[in-house]
Write a structure and sequence with these properties.
Strands 1, 2, 3, 4 and 5 form a 5-stranded mixed β-sheet that branches. It is elongated, with a radius of gyration of 37 Å. The protein starts with 7 loop residues before the first strand and ends in an 8-residue tail after the last helix. It is of the alpha/beta class. Helix 5 packs across helix 10, helix 6 runs parallel beside helix 10 and helix 7 packs parallel to helix 10. The protein has 2 domains: 90 residues, STAS domain (Transcription Regulator spoIIAA, 2-Layer Sandwich), CATH 3.30.750; 237 residues, no CATH class. It has 13 helices and 5 strands. The mean pLDDT is 85.
């Protein structure tokens, strides 16, 4: 039995200049898949607006081969075409499956930026009002607990202090120590050129105790403890535990939010002190290696050039940051949709919002209390 020829193209030019293109062989998936680029190139070379196409001598034609021709013909049948009825049906199906989509220029939507801005403002106002409402509930429950100290959730508060404070000590120690070394090395090079290497104690003391210590502790806390609070309360939403608390008449603000806020306000100032100590040790080591300042001299000079108020101001900022992180983490946890995508989205929003609010609060406190702890 004779074997049908592979896909091939024959063409000739008539005396009147017309191109006659004849396709022979088998134009199916098996014969064209390895030669797709080659066949498309040959078809493009012989294709012209007035070409005569003869497909009557084809041994086989399927959708794969017909698609190559359809692309060459710009998704429309040529005027001069000889084709078998069965093959013509394939091209009709291709025309129905792949209609020609007219290209048109879309009008410019000038209202879209305003709509995006309005949605952003609406989202900001909604979240701000929700956090103020949650803060009001916390204040009311705090007032009730002051009148009835027996109802203070000491176990939940101590658990929050442990998770947010004690378990965060290793990572904050490492980051604080490394930041102290890096800051010392960068500062020492500049101060040495100016002949003011002794001022590194002033620079490190004020920078670490007043700004870097609280800010580093808050950033790590927001990424670690803030996200954990959101995820924990969010899982309670997914498992319908929050709804069960509502049915039993248990306030989520009292049992979930208030202990975490109080725990953060206790734990984060202690973490700030811990971070300050390790950062100062790292800076002291860098000053010893770069400038030859003895550790005893560094420690003796530090309280002379850095007022104690700078240290307490940093600790106070730690308490403020801790309360803000806990409030934001719990707020987004309570608003999570009861599905896995909602849990991931809520946790991301919590961390991003907490970091942004911490940076804004740090800038605001630095401006409002610039005179505290600064020697004239």
């Amino acid at each position: 039995m004779a074997i049908a020829a592979a896909a091939s193209i024959n063409h000739r030019h008539a005396p009147d200049g017309t191109v006659h293109v004849e396709l022979v062989g088998r134009w199916n998936l098996r014969t064209t898949r390895e030669r797709t680029a080659e066949l498309l190139r040959e078809l493009a070379q012989v294709n012209s607006s007035g070409a005569h196409w003869d497909l009557s001598r084809l041994d086989d034609l399927d959708f794969a081969g017909a698609t190559l021709l359809w692309r060459t013909w710009a998704r429309r049948l040529p005027h001069e075409l000889v084709v078998r009825p069965d093959d013509e049906q394939i091209f009709r199906q291709l025309a129905a499956l792949l209609p020609e989509v007219p290209t048109r220029q879309l009008p410019i939507d000038w209202a879209s930026p305003l709509l995006i801005l309005g949605q952003a403002i609406h989202s900001f106002v909604t979240h701000a009002l929700g956090m103020v409402e949650l803060l009001g509930q916390i204040a009311l429950w705090s007032a009730r607990l002051i009148r009835r100290p027996a109802g203070v959730p000491f176990r939940e508060i101590s658990a929050a202090v442990f998770y947010s404070g004690a378990q965060a000590l290793p990572i904050t120690a490492l980051v604080g120590f490394l930041i102290g070394i890096v800051l010392s090395y960068l500062s020492a090079a500049q101060l040495r050129d100016l002949g003011a290497g002794f001022l590194i104690v002033n620079l490190l003391g004020v920078t670490i105790l007043r700004e870097l210590g609280p800010l580093l502790a808050a950033i790590l806390n927001a990424g670690r403890s803030g996200s954990a609070m959101t995820a924990e309360i969010g899982v309670m939403r997914v498992t319908d535990e929050l709804e069960a608390m509502d049915v039993l008449g248990i306030s989520a603000a009292q049992r979930l939010v208030l202990p975490r806020v109080l725990g953060q306000m206790i734990a984060l100032p202690l973490v700030v002190l811990w971070t300050d100590v390790l950062a100062v040790i790292g800076g002291m080591l860098g000053a010893k290696l770069q400038l030859g300042i003895a550790c005893g001299t560094f420690i003796h000079r530090l309280p002379q050039v850095v007022p104690l108020a700078s240290l307490w101001f940093g600790v106070f900022k730690g308490a403020v940051f801790g309360a803000l992180i806990a409030l934001i983490g719990c707020y987004f946890g309570l608003r999570i949709r009861p599905d896995t995508q909602g849990l991931a989205t809520g946790t991301t929003q919590s961390v991003v919002t907490a970091l942004t609010v911490v940076l804004l609060a740090d800038a605001l406190l630095a401006i409002l209390y610039a005179h505290i702890g600064m020697r004239s």
